[in-house]
Amino acid sequence: MFCNQCEQTSKGKACTRLGICGKNEAVAIQQDKLVWQLRELAAVALMAQEGANGLVVRSVRRVGANTPAWGLSNVNFDPVSLRAVQEECLERTTALAARVPGAPAPTPLAALDLRETAIDRLSDDEDVRSAMQILLYGLKGVAAYADHAAELGQRDPDVAAFLYRGLRAGTELDPESHDLNGWLGLVLECGKANLRAMELLGKPASAVLGVTMPGFGTTDRTYRNALDLMEALGVTRREISIADACVQHMADIGHDPSVHDITYENTQARERTQILFDLANKEGCLLVGTGDLSELAMGWCTYNGDHMSMYGVNASVPKTLVRYLVDYVAGELGGRTEEILRDVLDTPVSPELLPPDANGKIAQKTEEKIGPYELHDFFLYHFVRFGFDREKLAMLAEKAFDGRYDRPTIDRWLTEFLRRFFISQFKRSCIPDSPKVGSVSLSPRGDWRMPSDAAMQAFLQPDERI
User: Is the whole-model pTM more than 0.85?
Assistant: First the structure.
């Protein structure tokens, strides 16, 4: 058994005896084989330049027992219904291939060997395999939304075409060769297809509720960017000031608002979270978290404040990748939205929990306090992924950032990274569910298990130990 269909797999790699979810080896193999069958169907369908009667879309919902959230991946454990869809898929692919000159016959069920066809073995490059997995799970989500839309009589041939193209990617019948950037491009296209599928469901951008909550540290620049971005994207906009509520709360607990300490800062973060949770309940919405992997690694979030949400979409996306993605989306969208996003990228990273300076500019700058995120993301990857010790982390960083950071600077921020990483485990032990993106994740349910009182002394230099 080798099941890696969710983020909760044993040791963060795969379940090899019994699924943590309860599935057995036979069901896991059926699910993996069906994915490969759909890839074969999509490849032949594109050769025929026709839609294969919607089987790719419909099968996701059917196999997922009408539960689109997980689609094929981890919902239906009934071997009988899985077998029925496998047989239907084989029948339709066979019939279609017979009408397409040069199309190969589909692989018989009994002959499918996952050791040769499993997606996690299609590339020796770990980053490429990660991007392929992200694409696959994204396709399942798109298919689920598209199926529900089809039930309502709404279809978009472009969405269906992308489903086929995405499933075909990486197979022998794929005319394109994909390096890492190519796979990431497909992942981003998948996000656009997903938005279109949601639109087909009658869920326009206005169905997204965006909330800006200005407080004591909010600057005019970030306030205007928040309002302008919501307007440019067409989401429903709401503004709720937290100032009065925070002043009242500090009065209730006897805290002087002129003392700008951790109580002052966290009062604001937790007030915002309370508002968002209660507003989500009131509106029947899902509160999407904004925290990312870098913030979780460094503990740069308020416990039970911005640390909490109903689903943490960015929990395994490092800050450097967030910046890359925002830059990419800005270029894709263009116009006024691009202008706003470019200014967001040029704005210093800050929680804005302390008052602005005398010029109304951001006074609390995260990277001045805890160090450059590009360094911390580098440390995080090599520390978690490979278990390198302090000396090797510093040596690799010195080579990777030659000419940008000298050794004393690297040592300074490496100490800060290790210190904050160890003392912040208590926050990571109770984070919301989130998708796994890439090969590094700090999910306590599969990838990273660590006691909150783990000692950091072995990773510090002798003169730094306390």
Answer: no
